[in-house]
Design a protein that fits this description.
The complex is a heterodimer. By secondary structure, chain A is α+β, with helices and mostly antiparallel strands. Chain A is about 35% helix and about 15% strand. The chains are: A alpha+beta, B mainly beta. The interface of A and B includes residues 113, 125, 154, 161 and 190 of A.
Chain lengths: ~190, ~425
């Protein structure tokens, strides 16, 4: 179910990108409808397996040779999900984390932000701390795998920027999440606002 | 950032105003008659009605109808106790409003205990029409204090956050919801507003830089400063009672830990030392302790640390989620948020003397409590009809109010200090 949602999200992202001039990888751009669009970047939210055939018309505009934008690269997976009240990284997300750690190790000028998020239950401030702990858990794995501390800033949005605005377990599961963003990219949580 | 602008208190359209509904009242209410002030009808805004509404909203008073008493008393010495006793009133408020010719108005008021047949208060104010509401709140404060023994909080202000679509605003309004003023507008989340003890500044957390950063903003000038903008997350500000120090939660050294700093961002010193989450600092009223939430024992619980000795003591033991401690200004205990089962959040009050816990709200989504400076009421964030609302409950759990603003989510209330007299 989650993969279906993410695939749909991904399709939306790719379609959105394809209609946007992709001249730079810098700051987000406000379009006239008020929605924020990220130029050129499939910057978000995992599951970018490239199997959204037909809608993936933006592929031609992606920078050739940048593995961060290759939907077939494990680096296109950008989200790590957590259990309730937990900051333990589950095995299924270790390949993603390993791929990013390897990229950081091989690209010492690359910098990323890991944004921790929580579901909507509980204290706002405690959730900021819990989201931070989730971001730190992923950062710790990456540094053990060869990334350098100063390449990764961990921050937390707590429950303030839910990707899924729902109030059920499916929404909560989607919101208990870290997002990985490289410098210049904008996150799914930010676009969802 | 362009997404956020700090404003020097611009007035809002009236429709954004909070409306206060009384949901439940105290067991015993003091029956009181508030007589329309002599000369009041010559002004667009009366004072007796505002003062009476304040008293009624507190839940501690029952309003006795003053209509039909002739002649209508305007001075304490005109009050005939027998007349009011026959209407079962224990106290009577009378007054007058007289223009002085220079645009100012002389407001007189008296409070009579018709049981003991004593005048409890008699005051005169010289004010402009712009000060009518403030004068009415001041009168209500005096009546409340004379009849209940605790200071009234009708002259205080509250800060709160609204979310309308993608827009977040930090507002300040009178305690009765009137006169909301925008302090900050942002396209990114705002949270955790905290009043400086002198009521001139607000500390708060803004996400406008794509991460939580703590700001301190002057309410007089609108000027603000990012006082905690370190690597990682910066959040959970709390003022010391003397206003000289700010506690904040920072992650610059790893885990979420509590630090103390001056309100301009200088003089940073680490307060807690754990490998766990330490956050949600709140100073005890004597300034000696900082209460906080920590998961160092495996689940989030309330602790306190002595800011001089560093001694740490756990304060909550019952349940597996006890967070957001807010010390009572009278030093008697603290309010906190407890989770019951998986996702029912209620306010609870722990009394230091007995270590007894009283659950004072039903939930299911109650959070962010803030206590009135007289320790009698607690304002907090709740939910109704799928939207965030503010609610208030007396510290004995009996008086309940809801504060509703149309078509917007309201959250993160912070009760301001008593005005300086």
């Amino acid at each position: 179910m989650r993969n279906l949602i993410l695939a749909a999200l991904c399709a939306l992202v790719v379609v959105g990108c394809s209609s946007t001039p992709t001249t730079e990888t810098g700051a987000p751009v406000e379009d006239k409808s008020g929605a924020t669009v990220v130029p050129g970047g499939a910057s978000t939210s995992g599951a970018g397996t490239g199997n959204v055939s037909g809608s993936n018309t933006g592929a031609g505009s992606m920078s050739v040779g940048n593995p961060l934008r290759d939907p077939n690269s494990p680096l296109s997976k950008r989200s790590v999900y957590f259990d309730f009240d937990s900051f333990v990284v589950k095995d299924e997300f270790k390949p993603t984390i390993e791929a990013h750690a390897r990229y950081l190790q091989q690209n010492r000028n690359a910098h990323m932000t890991i944004q921790g998020n929580t579901d909507e239950r509980g204290s706002r401030e405690y959730n900021i701390a819990l989201g931070q702990k989730r971001a730190d858990a992923v950062k710790r794995m990456m540094t053990l795998l060869g990334a350098q501390d100063q390449q990764i800033e961990t921050v937390s949005f707590g429950k303030e920027k839910p990707r899924n605005p729902g109030h059920d377990e499916a929404a909560w599961a989607e919101n208990r999440r870290d997002d990985i963003l490289y410098a210049g990219e904008q996150g799914a949580a930010e676009r969802a606002q | 950032m362009a997404a956020c602008c700090a404003l020097a208190l611009l007035p809002l359209a009236a429709r954004a105003q909070l409306t206060i509904e009384i949901v439940g009242g105290a067991g015993t209410q003091i029956p009181i008659a508030v007589v329309p002030f002599d000369g009041e009808s010559n002004f667009p805004l009366g004072i007796s009605g505002i003062a009476g509404a304040d008293l009624q909203r507190s839940g501690l008073f029952r309003m006795v109808d003053p209509m039909g008493v002739t002649p209508r008393p305007a001075r304490a010495e005109d009050v005939q106790p027998a007349v009011w006793r026959s209407r079962n009133a224990d106290a009577v408020v009378v007054g007058s409003m007289r223009p002085l010719g220079d645009g100012r108005v002389e407001v007189r008021f008296g409070l009579v205990d018709v049981v003991k047949q004593q005048t409890l208060a008699s005051m005169v104010f010289t004010v402009t029409q712009q000060q009518f509401r403030a004068t009415a709140h001041k009168i209500a404060d005096v009546v409340y204090e004379k009849l209940t023994g605790s200071p009234g909080v009708f002259s205080t202000r509250i800060a709160y956050i609204t979310k309308s679509g993608p827009r977040y605003q930090l507002l300040v309004a009178d305690a009765d919801g009137f006169d909301p003023q925008v302090v900050v507008t942002s396209q990114e989340p705002l949270l955790s507003p905290k009043w400086s003890p002198d009521g001139t500044r607000l500390a708060y957390v803004s996400f406008e830089n794509r991460k939580p950063v703590v700001y301190v903003q002057s309410l007089e000038t609108g000027q603000r400063r990012a006082v905690a903008n370190f690597r990682g997350s910066n959040s959970a500000p709390a003022w010391s009672p003397d206003g000289r120090r700010l506690a904040v939660t920072l992650t610059k050294d790893g885990a979420s830990q509590i630090y103390l700093m001056n309100p301009d961002g200088s003089g940073l010193a680490r307060l807690t030392n754990s490998q766990s989450i330490d956050t949600e600092a709140a100073f005890s009223p004597d300034g000696q302790w900082v209460l906080f939430t920590s998961d160092r024992g495996g689940t989030p619980q309330v602790y306190r640390t002595n800011i001089v000795t560093g001694a740490v003591e756990r304060l909550t033991f019952d349940g597996n989620y006890n967070v957001t401690p807010r010390p009572m200004p009278d030093g008697s205990g603290f309010v906190y948020v407890r989770r019951e089962g998986g996702s029912r959040f209620q306010l609870a009050l722990m009394d230091y003397a007995t270590r007894q816990v009283q659950i004072i709200t039903q939930g299911p989504g109650d959070e962010s409590p803030s206590i009135a400076p007289n320790s009698k009421m607690i304002i907090y964030a709740s939910e109704a009809g799928g939207r965030g609302i503010l609610a208030a409950v007396s510290s004995d759990g009996r008086v309940k109010q809801r504060l509703v603003a149309p078509a917007t989510d309201v959250r993160e209330p912070a009760w301001g200090p008593l005005p300086r007299s």
